[in-house]
Amino acid sequence: MLKPLAFLLATATLTTARYALTLSPTLYTGPVTADYLTPSLDQSDLDAPKLSDVNASTFDWWTFDAIALENPNISVAVTFSTAGPVGYPLTFPPNVSHIEPVPGNGTGGYEADGALWAHVWATFADGRRFRASVRVETARMSGSGDSSIAIWHGGGGWMGSEEGYEVELEVNRTESGNGLEPLRLLGRISYEKITPSHSHCSVPNNFSMALGLGEHGLGWVNVMPDAIASVDLDVNGTRLRFDGYGSHDKIWSSRPFTQSTKSLTRGRAHLGLHSISWLSYTPQNPSSGPESPNANTFVSSFVARDGEPVTAGCADGSVSIQPTREQTEGGLVSGYRVEIPGARISVATDVEESEAGGRHVRWNGRARGRVGDADEEGVAIFERFEY
Ligand SMILES: *[C@@H]1O[C@H](CO)[C@@H](O)[C@H](O)[C@H]1NC(C)=O
Ligand SMILES: *[C@@H]1O[C@H](CO)[C@@H](O)[C@H](O)[C@H]1NC(C)=O
Ligand SMILES: *[C@@H]1O[C@H](CO)[C@@H](O)[C@H](O)[C@H]1NC(C)=O
Ligand SMILES: *[C@@H]1O[C@H](CO)[C@@H](O)[C@H](O)[C@H]1NC(C)=O
Ligand SMILES: *[C@@H]1O[C@H](CO)[C@@H](O)[C@H](O)[C@H]1NC(C)=O
Ligand SMILES: *[C@@H]1O[C@H](CO)[C@@H](O)[C@H](O)[C@H]1NC(C)=O
Ligand SMILES: *[C@@H]1O[C@H](CO)[C@@H](O)[C@H](O)[C@H]1NC(C)=O
């Protein structure tokens, strides 16, 4: 299924690839450096691996998601990652659970036997949820200009261009073995880009090259904040086929995530002609005093109309995310009120998917509220990590 991708990767290598690399399937043992500045806003630079190597306590990941326009119960998210087990917030495949870290010790005490992973979450019309993680043996990436291509062999990959992305899944494990059950994740998500890329302190028509949140913090770039998404997947025997909206972002750090993060919430919504995204990140051990509780929270917001950024920025305290419970005709609805410059919306948590004892939660649901000077309705997908 990935033949076109493999072919393109080979072609890119022969021509003018700015980079063409093989990611290591094993963890590096030693300190690594992370890049929190991008040399350009070319998609290949935004998507490029951001760590010099990947060791046990670092991670670099690429996420794609989509939610159905007709029914916000239906969604999918895929994360391709290269990462070690110390402080890793996502669930590893069942047969590698023995690489759980020794608490508080990022320098040993685990048997890390892999560095490449693919994670898939899906939710269905009837509220059913699915999630799976696979270990990948080899991965290659190449990039040039706005083209970025990645293959996680046995997991899937993506091909990005000026127009958007094609993401493919190619997990086809028909037999059980090695402590793993059969698993089938096949098919494609096609994205047609609506909005330009956004980063922490980007403002309309001025992309900020600084991708770090906080001094030694977390790297984040919203490579494609909103896109028209067309999904056709076989999710372990269930057909998931829908049209909706999707996005692609990237997160990385040279520090263990769960130990360096107090909370990270990021989400996005599509309402009418509007694309909205928000992020709020609070690192652990705030270096600032308790007298200014917002001082150590980093926020970012983005509102576009018809693909054109209208309001965006990172002013302290400009993003507010409050849990709500509202009585509606259809009964009691739980959700969040998200207030950012240029938009005040309510997002319902129609479907909730929780893992790691509630420390990682994903939601999708309906969204409605005021964007600019219009009342709009649409769909939202968002997630939170909390430690
Ligand atoms: C991984 O790299 C980070 C950042 O350089 C460093 O702090 C950490 O000690 C390294 N971990 C190992 C196991 O070498
Ligand atoms: C971390 O674990 C390694 C291996 O088990 C051990 O040698 C080392 O002393 C531990 N370091 C700390 C700070 O606990
Ligand atoms: C969404 O799923 C819930 C079950 O979790 C179900 O009650 C509801 O009817 C579904 N909504 C739609 C629009 O299908
Ligand atoms: C999945 O694997 C089975 C068994 O090897 C094979 O028959 C089938 O064609 C594969 N499907 C795809 C889409 O590669
Ligand atoms: C886990 O499964 C993979 C195949 O997907 C295999 O290569 C690996 O050796 C297994 N690991 C363990 C610890 O069994
Ligand atoms: C996928 O389906 C297989 C049966 O074909 C089953 O054994 C396995 O548990 C399923 N995996 C998940 C994550 O649901
Ligand atoms: C863009 O933002 C940078 C700071 O992030 C500033 O130095 C520069 O003047 C801005 N450019 C324009 C055209 O507003």
Automatic annotation (TrEMBL):
<feature type="domain" description="Diels-Alderase N-terminal">
    <location>
        <begin position="16"/>
        <end position="252"/>
    </location>
</feature>
<dbReference type="InterPro" id="IPR057722">
    <property type="entry name" value="AsqO/PenF-like_C"/>
</dbReference>
<dbReference type="Pfam" id="PF25581">
    <property type="entry name" value="AsqO_C"/>
</dbReference>
<keyword id="KW-0732">Signal</keyword>
<feature type="signal peptide">
    <location>
        <begin position="1"/>
        <end position="17"/>
    </location>
</feature>
<feature type="domain" description="AsqO/PenF-like C-terminal">
    <location>
        <begin position="259"/>
        <end position="385"/>
    </location>
</feature>
<protein>
    <submittedName>
        <fullName>Uncharacterized protein</fullName>
    </submittedName>
</protein>
<dbReference type="InterPro" id="IPR056402">
    <property type="entry name" value="DA_N"/>
</dbReference>
<dbReference type="Pfam" id="PF24137">
    <property type="entry name" value="DA_N"/>
</dbReference>
